[in-house]
Specification:
The structure is a homodimer. Chain A is α/β, with parallel strands linked by helices. The first copy, chain A, contains 9 helices and 5 strands, in the order βαβαααβαβααβαα. Chain A has a 5-stranded parallel sheet, with helices on both faces. Chains A and B meet through strand 5 and helix 9 of A and strand 5 and helix 9 of B.
Chain lengths: ~190, ~190
Amino acid sequence: MGKRVITIGREFGSGGRTIGRQVAKELGIEFYDKDIIRNVVKETGFTQKYVEQYGEYAPSADQFAYSFVGLDDRTSPIMLLWEAEQKVIRQFAEEKSCVIVGSAADYILRDRDDCLRVFLYADEETKEKRIAELYGAISLKEKNRVHDMDVRRGLNYKYFTGQEWGKAQNYDLALNRGTLGIDRCVELIVEAAK
Amino acid sequence: MGKRVITIGREFGSGGRTIGRQVAKELGIEFYDKDIIRNVVKETGFTQKYVEQYGEYAPSADQFAYSFVGLDDRTSPIMLLWEAEQKVIRQFAEEKSCVIVGSAADYILRDRDDCLRVFLYADEETKEKRIAELYGAISLKEKNRVHDMDVRRGLNYKYFTGQEWGKAQNYDLALNRGTLGIDRCVELIVEAAK
């Protein structure tokens, strides 16, 4: 296999976890997703809820720029969280061939030549349908939440990496899960990793 | 084959023409590139040089917003050019299975379900190397030109389509030709089109 580590950034509801798990299975390598959260909890002593809420998401999309005021203090909880995330992800990549979903892993592992950086996205309809499948019927409020989750992921990514989230140029491969479908996305990622 | 038409948007120097030609060959379908320019020349009566210069490029990256002042007049030459480009590309897509490189074809054919929309990009080093291979050693002035060409393509695309050029979400598949290489890009496009 040409690439030892595959990072998957993804829009909320684009099926990143399902696709990532399937890619890992086909290539016979580890799959890390919730494991990142678990290890960051161990590393920092923060609660799981705190890590889940702030590990990938800006505190609030409504407040936009204000969300991050004061956060450049390196001892702030959010900065400690980011440091721990980087440490955990680097360790995972070091230890075994693996697929890592989320958490700006593409950026954290940007200096590794053995890393394939994938971004998955989809149209709003596909994402809403997916979320309804996973969590039941989706209300208008939840539709807004889907969009809000992506805005918060984007803000968070931008803050810590200085890069635009979802900009093709930051990845090796960006796939539209809406038009290509899950199985085709898995095939293409496996093919690109070879 | 699942997709009859493959559009390839690409950064200057990312090897879009080479990749597009190879994809067309492997799938046994038509390849359109300079043909678009030729047909637009016939359609409009503009010179080939004019069509080449303004078909895909904003008049000037330096002047930025000023480049388009007055262009929303539907009888302006640039608008006539855009209308002709749309007509030619729609005709190509209607007639035969094909690969179309450049000219915002992804946007022009956005309502077709049988169309695979690809974007190719690369890091600056790869693009400069490619241009040097094609046109000889590259000077600092030419390096700036490479960047300038992409800025002008981006401005042009944005003006006529209202979309961001190179934003992954506008495509089915976005590939980093720098890290994946030409052959792998060809393989992945062929695979995705099946």
